[in-house]
Amino acid sequence: MPIPFLTHVLLEGPPDWMPEAWTLVKWTSSIGALALTKWYSAGATNKAEKNLHGRVILMTGGTSGIGAVTTYELAKRGAQVVLLTHQSPSDPFLIEFVEDMRERTENQFIYAEQVDLSSLHSIRQFATRWVDNSPPRRLDAIILGAATMTPPGGARKETAEGIETTWMVNYLANFHLLGILSPAIRAQPFDRDVRIVVTTCSSYISSPPLDKALEKNTWSPKGAYARSKLALMVFACAYQKHLDAYKRPDQLPMNARVILADPGFTRTPGTMRWLSRGTIWGLFIYILMYPIWWLLLKSANMGAQSILFTVMDSSMGPGRNAGGKMVKECIQVDYARKDVCDEEVAKKLWESSDKLIEKAEKEAALKRAKAKKAEEMKQEEAREAEKVEEIDALLETIAKGRAKKAQKEKEKEKEKAKGNKDGKKSKSAKSK
Ligand SMILES: NC(=O)c1ccc[n+]([C@@H]2O[C@H](COP(=O)([O-])OP(=O)(O)OC[C@H]3O[C@@H](n4cnc5c(N)ncnc54)[C@H](OP(=O)(O)O)[C@@H]3O)[C@@H](O)[C@H]2O)c1
């Protein structure tokens, strides 16, 4: 078919229905440019494979966007995935998500544990439970994928423990979680390839200074997000050194590796909230502009590729990787900022984070103790009020009983008096 057609075009010129050559060039180059843009923005595909049967993976943010795809891919390869979610395991949407995931991956080993990353207390409760397990639970990977973003123009918010929310969920929660889980990571046998994958974002490049994280007047949604990601990266680098410094009882080198993964700009519920500014009008505009987002942003599936690479590629394991590396588009890349692996910056951040957690946990514990006491007092008062009510009711019954008895006696006396009168009357009638 193409050969006769081309011969016809060459010998007799193009047919009437065919557009002019210039129009044809314009159309093909436009379509080619679009296809090239789409191909470029879709990013790289992970080629690494690994049998994950029997491997235990803890994961935050595994129920939405990039995280949900990652959960699916890991479970499909047989991993036992423990999802740390802020919903309770009895939440109907979460139950449906887990059941659907189990069905689609034919893997029953997908579980959900309630861990609210905006609460230090919730993180401590979960992590201490995990660490307290004896013998130590198997742990092959921890994927830290959860994050929050305040849409542009949004107000600064604080958690119930008084910490700025973006800083807490995106950075401090991970610092706290890994801090408590340290013994469980270090207790893994020497031949286990343990990976800690920290999800980051290129926004860290434009981060404002880390020491201004808790300032209220310089806060902005974009700055807070970028800063939380920079802090996370500085911590990730320092955490690898912290693990390496541990002397194992068997004298063998540390077998856990911390790896940073940047998924690239992706169409996810989080991105949609950011682009639509969290408003109905914004959502309407987002839907209208969807072809542009489709063209320029990755799908969640493509966003998950670098994370899957860090979990499965052999070059990321303890044998060939010193840890603290960053992966983007399924290849190792350098940091765009020198301070990511600066020991002085890390030391300051670590110390200030420790102090902040100690202060917030003390205050929260005090608040909880006060609330518990107030609740106990309330219950005691309710019990007292109940007792008083019972006594009042008893007294009322006694009083009623007495009144009834008195009434009955009165009536008896009346009848007696009446009987006496009648007796007298009949006696006098008889005597007459
Ligand atoms: N999307 C992008 O363009 C992009 C680019 C670069 C880097 N990243 C990074 O990639 C990761 C995934 O991004 P995404 O866009 O897929 O995220 P997403 O759709 O916004 O999902 C965020 C996840 O974090 C969880 N989460 C939020 N607050 C939580 C809390 N207090 N406690 C427990 N879980 C909480 C959410 O749980 P619920 O669903 O239950 O709320 C959800 O599973 C993030 O770390 C993000 O920073 C994303």
From TrEMBL:
Domain of life, source organism: Eukaryota
A GO term for molecular function: oxidoreductase activity
Keywords: Membrane, Oxidoreductase, Transmembrane, Transmembrane helix
TM segment ranges: 278-297
Any Pfam family matching the protein: adh_short
Keyword Oxidoreductase: yes
Basic and acidic residues: compositionally biased ranges: 406-425
Protein's UniProt keywords contain Heme: no
Span list, region Disordered: 402-432
UniProt record similarity statement: Belongs to the short-chain dehydrogenases/reductases (SDR) family.
Listed name of the protein: Retinol dehydrogenase
Organism for this UniProt entry: Rhypophila decipiens
